[in-house]
Design a protein that fits this description.
Layout: H1 4-10, E1 12-19, H2 25-32, E2 41-46, E3 66-69, H3 79-95, E4 103-107, H4 115-123, H5 125-130, E5 131-141, H6 145-151, H7 153-160, E6 164-168, H8 175-188, E7 194-196, E8 213-214, E9 219-220, H9 222-226, E10 276-283, H10 289-303, E11 307-314, E12 323-328, E13 331-332, E14 336-337, E15 349-356, H11 360-375, H12 381-386
Helix pairs in contact: 6-7, 10-11
The structure holds guanosine-5'-triphosphate.
Length: 387
């Protein structure tokens, strides 16, 4: 395990910008790149369907640190290219051949499932030592967003795994439709701060520095990262319907929950987003690391593809230091130990889950069976379940 706090300072934060075709990613990026906060930013853009060069295009006169990947869909075919490009850019930076960029934005094609990109960033040893995932920013089209969510599961996943959600084109969309879409996005991902934007205009500080590491305080900021108060505990559908919580809606509105997450919309019984669950699970007692690891292993083995995102802080037995976990499907970031618990923290373990077709109760049962097995001195949890 490594210490994220010191290592994080030296690694370059990477923002993954995703969102369905035409939802406003490029418009946003163009505006952002004019802002001083992003003056030292390298950008990697994947253009799906472009007639590519024979090989990955890395522009020689690349003062801006801007690279376009032309080799197809970023999510599957160019993961190798992404690793190579990011490594090459880092090398050029070290040699002084490009602006010494301090930040990176990777814009995905609109059709991409962002998960494989996150996997690459989290696990490739070369990248993980040089870069860190700062956050996933997802644009959702204020005009076409609802039908896109209906018809494209990737679009739902893009919104579900976001750390920041941006509803675009609010200048031309109708207010009632926007309100509906906003509520739908909130159901899908209550933990992600939400902003309505037009023409790509937003204060960069609202979308940058979304990761665990807070560069201002130069320390891990668990509360901001987990945003756990957005999820109410103990409800099958993740966020409590009677529990009034302030979704981080910077338009200044609070959301009321008309109907529960997971309930079928009578007009549209097959909505992809009805499959998504988001909830925060809390564990009061310190946990043994081997038990937690085994429980996550079991979850990943049986339901890996449906564990869209997991973020958490654990109180592990025999240590005073909290352990941070972060997973996307079957891939976990190497667990990191923080130097200390945040001041005033109740030191309960808590994990935010965003899942597809997995109820909170199922995950609770898996953990319970492993805790039970630990208590009984580790006979096989599977056998106990069968009894
Ligand atoms: N009126 C209005 N138009 C917008 C806004 N944001 C984007 N657009 C327009 O919507 C179209 C698509 O925007 P892009 O920024 O190219 O979207 P994208 O997500 O990069 O699109 P792809 O690269 O195809 O995935 C363009 O014609 C933009 O000018 C907005 O806030 N308001």
């Amino acid at each position: 395990m490594s210490n994220t706090q010191t290592a994080a300072e030296e690694r370059i934060p990477v923002t993954v910008l995703t969102g369905f075709l035409g939802s406003g990613k490029t418009t946003l990026l163009n505006k952002l790149l004019r802002r001083p906060e992003l003056s030292d930013t390298a950008v990697i853009i994947n253009e799906f369907g472009e007639v590519g060069l024979d090989h990955l295009l890395v522009e020689k006169s690349n003062d801006e640190g801007m690279v376009t990947l032309n080799s197809g869909c970023l999510c599957c075919t160019v993961r190798g290219d992404l690793v190579r490009t990011m490594s090459e850019l880092f090398l050029k930076r070290s040699k002084g051949e490009v602006t010494p960029f301090k930040r990176m934005v990777v814009e995905t094609t609109g059709l991409a499932d962002p998960a494989p990109i996150l996997h690459t960033l989290m696990t490739d040893p070369l990248l993980a030592s040089r870069y860190r995932l700062d956050g996933v920013v997802t644009t959702v089209d204020g005009i076409n967003g609802a039908s896109t969510l209906d018809n494209h599961e990737e679009a739902v996943k893009q919104a579900a795994v976001a750390d920041r959600l941006l509803l675009t084109k609010v200048d031309i969309a109708e207010a009632p439709k926007l309100a509906e879409l906003k509520e739908r996005l909130h159901q899908l991902n209550p933990g992600a701060p939400f902003h309505s934007i037009s023409g790509g205009e937003i204060d960069p500080n609202q979308i940058l520095n979304a990761g665990l590491y807070n560069p201002e305080t130069k320390s891990a900021d668990v509360k901001r990262w987990l945003h756990e108060e957005a999820y109410a505990e103990g409800h099958e559908h993740g966020h409590g319907h009677h529990h009034h919580h302030g979704h981080d809606d910077h338009d200044g509105h609070e959301h009321g929950h008309e109907h529960g997450h997971g309930e079928q919309d009578p007009h549209n019984p097959n909505r992809h987003d009805d499959r998504i669950r988001s909830f925060c699970m809390t564990f009061d007692e310190p946990m043994s690391w081997s038990t937690v690891a085994a429980a996550f292993d079991a979850l990943v083995t049986y339901r890996g593809p449906d564990l869209l995102r997991m973020k958490g802080i654990l109180n592990v037995k025999d240590t005073d230091k909290p352990v941070v976990i972060h997973g996307v499907q079957h891939v976990f970031h190497p667990p990191a130990t923080l130097d200390a618990w945040p001041e005033g923290d109740d030191r309960k373990s808590r994990v935010v889950f965003i899942t597809r077709d997995i109820a909170e109760s199922t995950i609770r049962k898996v953990f319970a069976s492993f805790f039970e097995a630990e208590k009984k001195g580790w006979s096989q949890p599977e056998q106990q379940q069968q009894q």
